[in-house]
Amino acid sequence: MINKELKITFSQHVQPDQISSMVSGIAAYGNVTADSSGRIFMVEVFRLSKLPKLQTKLNDLEQYGFLRWQALD
């Protein structure tokens, strides 16, 4: 099985409670781990069929300036 890994970096203006809320929604798509800053998260997506929907969600959040993301593969 092939997994896809994404790196998500939240903008400085996003409050910690907002980050928690957004990460909870993202966690439905895969395994989420945070770095020590609490602003950078790695998401390992196990079911690739969920990837397009997650990418759409991340693109929307990126468009509004909440975060930046990139695929690491």
Task: Give descriptors for this structure.
single chain, 73 residues, alpha+beta, Alpha-Beta Plaits, 4-stranded antiparallel β-sheet, 33% helix, globular
Can you write the helix and strand succession as a string? EHEEHE
The major beta sheet can be summarized as: 4 strands, antiparallel
Distance between the termini: 14 Å
Overall number of domains = 1
Uncertain parts: none
Strand content: 25-35%
Class derived from helix and strand content: alpha+beta
**Main sheet strand line-up:** 2-3-1-4
What does this structure look like?
With 73 residues, the protein is of the alpha+beta class. It has one domain (4-71): Alpha-Beta Plaits. The protein is 33% helix and 30% strand. The chain has 2 helices and 4 strands, in the order E-H-E-E-H-E. Strands 2-3-1-4 form a 4-stranded antiparallel beta sheet, covered by helices on one side. Strand 2 (31-34) and strand 3 (40-45) form a beta hairpin. The longest helix is centred in the last third of the chain and has 13 residues, at 51-63. The chain starts with a strand and ends with a strand. 14% of the residues are buried.
